[in-house]
Recover the amino acids of this structure.
């Protein structure tokens, strides 16, 4: 399996056994996937269509985007998590959710540990890459890494998400600093933007 490629074969196998036990959902853009009376850290969520954002409920720090197909919270039933997360739709999303404890029982019943391991390893590598980009880096390098991340998105997602908002929620760098760096990069024709959205990156200097 190539590094950082989403393990789609393993996802299909997991979905085959989980979907008959899930509560289906179709949620419009800009809404939370789970009902207000349910905590994300107690559920496994499977997104079959659409794109959602994952953020910490406490401080709204953006961890990333989950584009279908995707499983969130597959390991939530293994160990209690004191940090709650919010999964909100960036586009209309459909899929299903089920209690994390039930998902864990299904992994055990149908011997799905290999598939779960592949999926969780992929998620770990994505978060590891995020930490490499942000932890211990100065403001410019965090902004640069965020722009490079956006450049890899599907065009449809890139044209929906504002550059300023994404970088600020992801890094917590002040909006004034982000605006200054973006203006300099646009002036130097390193990036192209339109109405706050990223169109393309020509190249990004290593230092600011």
């Amino acid at each position: 399996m190539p590094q950082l490629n989403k393990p789609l074969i393993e996802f299909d196998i997991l979905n085959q056994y989980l979907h008959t036990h899930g509560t289906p959902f179709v949620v419009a853009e800009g809404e939370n996937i789970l009902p207000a009376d349910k905590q994300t850290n107690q559920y496994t969520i499977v997104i079959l269509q659409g794109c959602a954002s994952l953020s910490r409920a406490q401080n709204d720090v953006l961890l990333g985007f989950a584009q279908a197909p995707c499983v969130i919270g597959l390991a939530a039933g293994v160990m209690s998590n004191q940090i709650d997360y919010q999964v909100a739709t960036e586009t209309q999303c459909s899929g299903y959710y089920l209690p994390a404890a039930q998902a864990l029982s299904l992994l055990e019943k149908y011997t799905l540990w290999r598939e779960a391991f592949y999926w969780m390893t992929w998620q770990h590598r994505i978060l590891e890459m995020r930490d490499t980009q942000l932890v211990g880096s100065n403001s410019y390098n965090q902004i640069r890494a965020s722009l490079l991340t956006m450049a890899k998105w599907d065009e449809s997602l890139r044209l929906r998400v504002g550059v300023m908002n994404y970088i600020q929620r992801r890094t917590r760098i002040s909006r004034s600093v982000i605006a200054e760096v973006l203006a300099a990069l646009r002036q130097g024709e390193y990036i192209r933007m339109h109405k706050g959205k990223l169109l393309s990156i020509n190249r990004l200097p290593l230092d600011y």
In short: Residues 137-201 form a domain with the Arc Repressor Mutant, subunit A fold (CATH 1.10.10).
